[in-house]
Each structure stands twice: as structure tokens, then as C-alpha cells.
Write a structure and sequence with these properties.
Helices cover about 40% and strands about 15% of the residues. It starts with 12 loop residues before the first helix and ends with a helix.
């Protein structure tokens, strides 16, 4: 990779991997030349991609061996189908055997591919189980979110099952997407066209303040790389006690913020001064504004 600024948001899956890892260290598994694509899409008259929208392989990050997967945002919104999910599950199973310094997941998806609903849902459960097996083996699984599709659906759940999350201000994380919420609850409940509302509710800054993301970085692949390097080898325990604590924290969150009608009210409750200025703040200013929140709420 070079020192020039490169937007994570604007790059393809292969470009992100090439710029994130050490120069020329990436070796792809099941590349497009091997033509592993969805068996369901041709039946429905839909186009296919010979990598089924996900790139997997191994490489070096600051000299340490890592396994890596990146969802291609331009193919069906990074959606998860049967082959897509099988490639990701296989990579995670390989990690248990090879014991790399980390598994990096560059997630950029709207969730399950609706054309392959059942197969996609099964794939999500297989991915989730494989993530737990990698974590149980003491290998950190690090999620990077900063793409145009955000991280939604079942993969949004998978993301929160991993050891660490790095997100940019442009990144978004949720289970249901804005359009899904609007369709289910009505525009009065959530206006999916209100982009400021979407980012206040699901965006990187909100996820960082809530403790869902470990690190927030600018939309710069070099910043994502530095953040990932800082987390190499840093696994978190996956025990009954740790899971129980996470469930209790979620319950406490529900009770504490259930009366808040907007994210800015949550930020005020957390003690962020000038909460209304959070969306406008550059990342260095935002980190300064939120430092005491992270220290007091999520240490």
C-alpha cells in the first residue's frame, strides 16, 4: 500500500484488501477463474458473479499472517447467498486450522440475498457458528465497516458476535435497514429518506458512543489498517460469564434509553457536551468530545 489517501468507501473489495494488507502479500482462495457462483440466480434470470460477491484469502498485515474476507459492494449490495456464505464459513474454519494472528472481515452488505432467502439464512447461522469457533480458539475476529451498503441483516448480528469492530463515520450498523423499518412501522416512526436521521441512529459515531464499535477512523484505508494492526492478537474471552455480562449491558441500555426519541437525547444522557454538534464534528474533534464517555461508560 502507498501513503496516499485512499477512500475505503469508494473502493472495491479487491482494492480494499490490496491497500489494507502488506504489498503483494494477498493470496486469493477460490478466485473468479474457478467460477464458484450461485446456482439459484441463473434459474431466476439474474446475473451472477464468478466470486459470488465475496473475496477471501490470506496475506500479511504488518508482517503477521491474517485471513481476510471482503464483500463486494457492487454485486447485489454485498448480499449473502449460498456460495457467498459458504466461502466465508470455509475461511473461518480454515482459521481454526491455520491459527493466523487475526481474521479480518470487511463487511459491506444489506444482508441476506432475497433471491436465495432460505439458503442465505442458513448461511448466516453457519457463519455465526464458525465465528464462535474461531473466537473459542483464541483467534481474534476483527470487523471493518465503512462501505456504501453499511452492515445490515444477519451479518449485522454476526458483526456484533466478533471480537472487535472498527468503523468509519460513513459506516452504518443495524439489523433492520432504514427502508425495512419504515415499511414495518411507517414513515412517522422512521423516515428512511432522512439521511441525517439514518446516520444519527445507525452511523459510526453513534455506534462508537454506544460502545458497539471499538475504534472509529476517518474514511481512509491507511487509518483502517493502523487500527487493525493495533488489534492483532487481541482476542476477547468467549465464556458464559462474558455473554451474560453482554446481555445484562443490553438490558441496561434498553431501560436507560427507552424514553429517548432521538440519538441526540441518548448522547446527552451519556454526557456528551454539545450533542447536536456530534454529526458535524471531524473525527479528531469527535474523539475529544467522546473521550470521557468511552472512559466512563465502556472502559
Amino acid at each position: 500500500m502507498s501513503g496516499a489517501h485512499k477512500s475505503f468507501l469508494e473502493r472495491t473489495a479487491r482494492q480494499r484488501i490490496a491497500d489494507l494488507l502488506d504489498n503483494d502479500s494477498f493470496s486469493e482462495i477460490l478466485p473468479p477463474a474457478e467460477r464458484h457462483f450461485s446456482p439459484h440466480l441463473p434459474v431466476l434470470g439474474q446475473p451472477v458473479a464468478f466470486d459470488d460477491g465475496i473475496v477471501i484469502g490470506s496475506g500479511l498485515l504488518s508482517g503477521a499472517k491474517v485471513l481476510i474476507a471482503a464483500q463486494e459492494p457492487a454485486f447485489m449490495g454485498g448480499s449473502v447467498g449460498e456460495i457467498h456464505g459458504a466461502k466465508l464459513t470455509g475461511l473461518l474454519e480454515r482459521a481454526v486450522q491455520q491459527r493466523p494472528a487475526a481474521v479480518l472481515l470487511l463487511l459491506d452488505t444489506g444482508g441476506v440475498r432475497l433471491h436465495e432467502a432460505n439458503a442465505g439464512l442458513i448461511a448466516i447461522s453457519e457463519i455465526q457458528r464458525a465465528v464462535f469457533e474461531v473466537r473459542h480458539a483464541g483467534i481474534p475476529v476483527i470487523v471493518l465497516i465503512g462501505g456504501s451498503n453499511g452492515c445490515y441483516g444477519g451479518i449485522g448480528i454476526v458483526a456484533k458476535c466478533c471480537d472487535h469492530m472498527i468503523i468509519s463515520e460513513e459506516g452504518r450498523l443495524s439489523v433492520s435497514g432504514p427502508e425495512v423499518i419504515e415499511a414495518a412501522k411507517g414513515v412517522e416512526e422512521f423516515d428512511a429518506r432522512d439521511r441525517a436521521l439514518v446516520w444519527r441512529t445507525m452511523g459510526g459515531k453513534h455506534r462508537y458512543l454506544m460502545g458497539d464499535a471499538d475504534l472509529i477512523v476517518p474514511d481512509d484505508i491507511a487509518a483502517f489498517r493502523d487500527a487493525a494492526i493495533s488489534l492483532l492478537g487481541a482476542s476477547r474471552p468467549l465464556t458464559l460469564e462474558s455473554i451474560t455480562q453482554e446481555h445484562q449491558a443490553l438490558q441496561n441500555r434498553m431501560q436507560r434509553f427507552s424514553a429517548c426519541a432521538d440519538a441526540t437525547q441518548i448522547w446527552q444522557e451519556l454526557g456528551v457536551t454539545d450533542a447536536k454538534n456530534v454529526p458535524l464534528a471531524e473525527i479528531p474533534e469527535f474523539l475529544e468530545m467522546s473521550a470521557h464517555v468511552r472512559r466512563e461508560e465502556h472502559a
